[in-house]
């Protein structure tokens, strides 16, 4: 692994631990010589992660749609900054540049990016590891939702192994580094109707 894509909130959230763990992750990325790929903002957990990477001597690469956000939201001190035309291009570029994905706490945008990375892994578009940093049990309800989907027959049990979970940045990065793609069973369980 050379680069990790981090999806994160553009707000800091209500608990200081969210920012603390974002910074910890950033420092650990730099310590391991891993480059950060992220949405390019200087705000919230996104900015905290990027700043921690840069302050620790690491590389941070931002990808942001042209004209979508106010100018002051773009981080001006990044190692590289890509401007793209829209959100679809942003996600495609971030995926292209990255060897793995991590979701920090965030909102709809973070959830959408996380689930797209998981779905793309599930259907074989990529074989990259996808993890969540479960800070203060932030992602525990989502993990329970995945369990519910398995129990309700909407996802094979082997597919939940595509989501790597830990509450500590060091441990999560260790898990991503040793990731072996699970042997996925067929996504569809209905008999062929033809």
Please provide a written account of the structure.
It comes from Brevibacillus borstelensis AK1. InterPro entries: LOG (IPR005269), LOG_fam (IPR031100). This is Cytokinin riboside 5'-monophosphate phosphoribohydrolase. One of its GO terms (cellular component) is cytosol. Helix content is 39%, strand content 16%. By secondary structure, it is α/β, with parallel strands linked by helices. Strands 4-3-2-1-5-6-7 form a 7-stranded parallel β-sheet, sandwiched between helices. The chain is globular and about 50 Å long.
Task: Give a brief outline of the structure.
By secondary structure, the protein is an alpha/beta fold.
Number of helices: 6
Can you give the mean pLDDT?
93
**What global shape is seen?**
globular
| Poorly predicted segments | none
Number of separate strands:
7
Please indicate the percent range of residues in DSSP E strands (runs of 2 or more): 15-25%
The class by helix and strand makeup works out as alpha/beta
Output the helix-strand order.
EHEHEEHEHEHEH
Organism: Brevibacillus borstelensis AK1
InterPro entries: LOG, LOG_fam
Pfam family, one: Lysine_decarbox
EC number: 3.2.2.n1
What descriptive keywords fit this protein?
seven-stranded parallel beta sheet, 39% helix, 194 residues, 7 strands, alpha/beta, Cytokinin riboside 5'-monophosphate phosphoribohydrolase, 6 helices, globular, Rossmann fold
